[in-house]
């Protein structure tokens, strides 16, 4: 849909599966799960379709070293490391140490995929010092005769990241046609918000009435909404499409952040178990579990009619589950 060059590393279309036991539990007509966790290599996730676009740009620019920064258990960085391995490119991940440097979950996979990992003590992803640290790493590679390419979803790569999820919106519209109805709502958990931005922009562009409900796992509602609108509209201008998003075009909730970003909440731990026990789904307690907790909470508050059709975007994050085993042990038995 975006007309941008792309690789085909992700296995698309991802499955679109009915979840009838979950629908019965929520007392709605139907629930479908879009299985981005099954998007292919490196344990899947919502970043893979964005990486198909971002890495097409990197290759066109002659890159031989991909550089990115995020939290130490970043799903995005693990996906990037997996893609770099498949493409035979180097990968340097500069990760915030605060969430732990234990060799488990995504950090273990980063190592298995051959990425070079360094840590920063800086705790704020938006702090300008992080940009300086990344520039210094890129300069080092340039001095060694390498051709580094910085991938930063909340910065230089944002437009392409939105384009990736506009194509995801187009794929969902095909899924909707296959089930013969336009669902009322797609629930998606938000970090940077680029996935929700691309989906909402894509649905509006394609004149699909399905609403996007973004569940913040990180930022307060007002900041996330503002960022999503600005980023979607900048990407639309960059893609040369007329459609623009406004504040009314999507719903954002921030009451599932719980104790904080990257930290499981009682509701997310319970939601992971509910999805597992009803549908055999593997969610994680810091992203998709919070999205599912919001969906369950909204159903319990009676916000959906009995005739509603709901889509849950399973955005991946599977390795993170295993780093939170002790939180499940501490949580109340069900
Ligand atoms: C598993 C998972 N789900 C959802 C998200 C949120 O996606 P976005 O950053 O596009 O809002 C992330 C972000 O890292 C993630 O790792």
Secondary structure blueprint with pairings:
Blueprint: E1 16-18, H1 20-26, E2 30-35, H2 48-60, E3 65-71, H3 75-87, E4 90-96, H4 105-112, E5 116-120, H5 128-143, E6 148-150, H6 158-179, E7 185-190, H7 194-205, E8 211-216, H8 221-239, E9 250-253, H9 266-279, H10 288-300, E10 309-314, H11 318-321, H12 325-330
Q: Mind explaining what this structure looks like?
A:
- The protein has 334 residues and is α/β, with parallel strands linked by helices.
- It folds into 2 domains: 16-45 and 156-328, Rossmann fold (3-Layer(aba) Sandwich); 47-154, Rossmann fold.
- The protein is 44% helix and 16% strand.
- The chain contains 12 helices and 10 strands.
- It has helices at residues 20-26, 48-60, 75-87, 105-112, 128-143, 158-179, 194-205, 221-239, 266-279, 288-300, 318-321, 325-330, and strands at 16-18, 30-35, 65-71, 90-96, 116-120, 148-150, 185-190, 211-216, 250-253, 309-314.
- The strands form 2 sheets. The protein has a 6-stranded mixed beta sheet, sandwiched between helices. The protein has a 4-stranded parallel beta sheet with strand order 5-4-3-6, sandwiched between helices.
- Strand 7 (185-190), helix 7 (194-205) and strand 8 (211-216) form a beta-alpha-beta unit.
- Helix 7 crosses helix 8.
- It is globular.
- The model has no long low-confidence stretch (mean pLDDT 95).
- Bound molecules: pyridoxal-5'-phosphate (PLP).
């Amino acid at each position: 849909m975006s007309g941008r060059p792309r690789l085909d590393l992700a296995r698309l279309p991802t499955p679109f599966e009915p979840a009838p036991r979950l629908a019965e539990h929520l007392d709605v007509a139907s629930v479908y799960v879009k299985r981005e966790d099954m998007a292919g290599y490196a344990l899947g996730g919502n970043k893979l379709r964005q990486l198909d676009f971002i890495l097409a740009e990197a290759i066109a620019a002659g890159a031989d070293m991909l550089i990115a920064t995020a939290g130490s258990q970043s799903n995005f960085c693990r996906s990037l490391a997996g893609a770099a391995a498949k493409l035979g490119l180097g990968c340097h991940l500069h990760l915030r140490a605060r969430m732990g440097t234990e060799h488990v979950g995504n950090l273990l996979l980063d190592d298995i995929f051959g990425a070079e990992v360094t840590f920063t003590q800086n705790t704020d992803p938006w702090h300008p010092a992080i940009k300086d640290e990344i520039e210094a790493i890129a300069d080092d590679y340039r001095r060694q005769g390498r051709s580094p390419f910085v991938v930063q979803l909340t910065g230089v790569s944002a437009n392409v990241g939105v384009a990736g999820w506009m194509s995801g919106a187009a794929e969902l519209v095909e899924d909707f046609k296959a089930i013969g109805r336009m669902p009322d709502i797609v629930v998606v958990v938000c970090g940077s918000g680029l996935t929700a931005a691309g989906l909402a922009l894509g649905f509006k562009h394609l004149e699909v009435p399905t609403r996007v409900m973004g569940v913040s796992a990180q930022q307060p509602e007002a900041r996330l909404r503002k960022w999503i609108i600005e980023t979607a509209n900048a990407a639309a201008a960059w893609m040369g499409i007329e459609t623009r998003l406004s504040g009314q075009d999507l719903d954002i909730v921030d009451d599932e952040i719980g104790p904080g970003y990257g930290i499981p909440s009682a509701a997310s731990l319970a939601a992971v178990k509910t999805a597992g026990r009803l549908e055999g789904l593997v969610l994680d307690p810091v992203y998709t579990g919070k999205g599912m907790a919001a969906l369950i909470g909204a159903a319990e508050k009676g916000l959906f009619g009995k005739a509603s059709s709901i889509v849950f975007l399973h955005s991946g994050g599977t390795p993170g589950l295993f780093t939170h085993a002790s939180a499940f042990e501490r949580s109340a038995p069900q």
